[in-house]
Amino acid sequence: MDNLDYGIIGNCRSAALISKNGSMDWCCLPEFDSPSVFAKLLDEEIGGSFGIEVEDTYKIHQFYDAETAILITKFTEGEENCFEIHDFMPRYHKDDDSFFAPPEVIRYIKLVAGKPKFKVVYNPKLEYAQGKTESFIKKDFIASLTHDVKFDTVFLYTSFDKEKVLNGEEIIVEENGFFLLTYNEKIFTPTTERVFLNLERTRIYWMDWSQKTPTYKKFDKEIKRSALTLKLLSYDKTGAVLAAATTSLPETIGEVRNWDYRFCWIRDASMVIKVVSQLGHKNVAKRYLQFIIDLIPDKDEKLQIMYGINREKKLTEQTLEHLSGYKGSKPVRIGNAAYEQVQNDIYGILMDVIYEMISQFSIDIQNGEELWGITKGIVWIVEKHWQEPDKGIWEFRSEDRHFTFSKVLCWTAIDRAIKVAELLDKKHKIDKWRPLEQKIKKDIMENAWNEEKQAFTQSYGSSDMDASVLLMQSYGFIDAKDPKYVSTVLAVEKDLCNDGLLYRYKNEDDFGEPSSSFTICTFWFINSLFKIGQEEKALQHFEQLLSYSNHLGLFSEDVDFKTKRLLGNFPQAYSHLALIECAINFSNKASEENVLESMRD
User: Fold this and answer.
1) Which intervals hold domain Trehalase-like N-terminal (predicted)?
2) Which pLDDT tens digit goes with each residue over 411-449?
3) DSSP state, residue 56
4) Most exposed: 75, 252, 434, 548, by fewest CB within 10 Å?
5) Are the C-beta atoms of residues 463 and 457 closer than 8 Å to each other?
6) pLDDT the model gives residue 596
């Protein structure tokens, strides 16, 4: 497989990736950031997988059960033989209104016609395949365990012959059956009927969830799939939102830009929450706000740019030398040293979400006082630090600079704090904070504008363009029709656009010039074209970019400029939230045009 032709399944506790041929090549249990059980994605030889193999005479077709996170892989041989795998992780409401979301994966085998045959490749490699994993057939299950690095076990229950499963022998499907992989041994032995009930309950849960997403005139299918993908990257227990479900998928094949994304970046998560709550999914937003409140115990504690999904503050980075990496792209990293970086933009992004939440939920919002406390704390920190250089949105690991985007987001922090103060009728704070907001704005207008380029550039005094400056309009810093913004969009296009795809920037960073396009930047560019009035051109770019998604409509972090293959961690929250923003703009435009048409009629 040359592309990231995978589907994601999950239950807001963990996730798994399944290839278009039905092989589970990535799965961490019991949680998103736990060591892998299957990691063929990162090492085809030793990573471990859970595959279903059929003869070459079978055709394979993969799709999602509509408006759910249940992935169906259909195997058909001629007219006679056909079966489906319905892959999912259980998630549904219990009687006490809590969720049933155990650390397990279910592969429900549905017989459609005839007597189809398959073989199972069941090869768990616990603890990132760091030691030997052995599997044993017990009375009710197959137990797999390792104790080389650390003791760990998983259990596989199945309605099929366990000997044949473990030995990879041919299995004839004569009735519906199942595989249930679980981190914890079950108290009651699963049956096919019980597993089917789990499937139906999970289907109903996802369909109910999707029903809360509004229906859009255009790109409705893409918006719903992206919203479901963002939901799958949210971690119920704490409210954290992950940047992606994987680690170390490279931005460029054979290079070293490989990072662990199974963490909660304040920036990415806040942007996700803003979009998801605008789609009407308030509970995800409330849980995330609680995650933030729980992180900030001391009033003068500076926010880290990222945290572990269970609120861990230390995310020590280490390299797994024994894994060869995706398509041979080493190193494979777990943990992420970026947690120690200073990025001043996170305050503005977080403040933007707090303002959204307070204005949406009104002041009776639970934790209103705490959010007001955080607002005051953010203003205090921004006032103290906005004039300092930082690492910027792209996390340059070397020098600190005065990045335009960071400054704009410092302005955003104060602007939104003032708006919150207005909602809460805190007049004295408004008077106190307004001069600071004006001072930051003046500083940006004077120092970020490059007369020669006729554009706002990457950092103060720089002539390099950067896609992040396109967001100046989104955050309300500048009007879309302002000549300075229009000429900035055109300068970004001239310098950073390559065959309809965007570089984040082209100046060399710590690892040389990037050779892949950062997907969110292309979406930002499309949005900017739309906002400055180039709507048809924007739509063409959008439809072209959508065609680069995988067979299920999913995006990773990057797209290769030449081959258009997906690269980087997958699926990427950033890419899907920006897809939703663009799609909604086009859909709203279509609705407005329809209204005008009907008025003319």
Assistant:
1) 8-134
2) 999 999 999 999 999 999 999 999 999 999 999 999 999
3) T
4) 434
5) yes
6) 63
d(CA 71, CA 64): 5
SS3 79: coil
* Residue 232: pLDDT over 70: yes
State the average pLDDT over residues 345-360: 90
d(CA 125, CA 9): 20
Residue 510 clears pLDDT 60, i.e. is over it: no
For 334-344, what is each residue's pLDDT tens digit? 999 989 888 88
Contacts of 281 (CB under 8 A, 6+ apart): 209, 212, 213, 227, 231
pLDDT digits (tens, 9 = 90+) for 323-334: 999 999 999 999
User: 5, 58 in Cβ contact below 8 A?
Assistant: no
pLDDT in tens, 171-188: 999 999 999 999 999 999
Backbone φ and ψ for 266, nearest 5 degrees, come out as: -55, -40
Q: What residue ranges in 224-279 does DSSP mark as E strands?
A: 264-265
Cα Rg of the chain (Å, integer): 25
Q: How confident is the model at residue 601 (pLDDT cuts 50, 70, 90)?
A: low
**Which residues, 6 or more positions from 150, have their beta carbon under 8 angstroms from its beta carbon?**
127
557 token code pair? 């972090």
Mean pLDDT on 517-537: 97
**Cβ proximity of 220 and 581 under 8 Å:** no
Residue 1 above 50 pLDDT? no
Query: CA 387, CA 418: separation in Å to the nearest integer?
Result: 20
Q: Show Cβ contacts of residue 282 under 8 Å, excluding neighbours closer than 6 positions.
A: 360, 361
Q: Which of 242, 229, 283 is nearest to 67 (CA)?
A: 229
Residue 152: CA count within 13 A, CB half-sphere: 22
Buried b or exposed e, range 306-329, using 16+ CB within 10 angstroms: bbbbeeeeebeeeebeebbbbeeb
Q: Is 324 in contact with 43 (CB distance < 8 Å)?
A: yes
Looking at residue 363, its pLDDT comes to 54
The sign of the CA dihedral 533, 537, 543, 548 is: negative
Assign 244 to helix, strand or coil. strand
What whole-number distance in Å separates Cα of residue 14 and Cα of residue 29? 7
Report the distance separating Cα 363 and Cα 123, nearest Å: 53
Give the end-to-end CA distance of the chain in Å, rounded to a whole number: 52
| C-alpha torsion 111→114→117→122, nearest 10 | 0
Cis peptide leading into residue 250 (ω within 30°): no
Burial 394-417 (b: 16+ CB within 10 A, else e): bbbeeebbbbbbbbbbbbbbbbbb
Hunting for tokens 């400054």 — which residue is that?
A: 407
Angle between helices 404-423 and 368-385 (to 10 degrees): 140
**For residues 577 and 257, which has the higher predicted lDDT (pLDDT)?**
577
Distance CA 187, CA 240 (A): 30
Average pLDDT score, the chain: 93
What are the chain's domains?
A: 7-210 (no CATH), 220-600 (1.50.10.10)
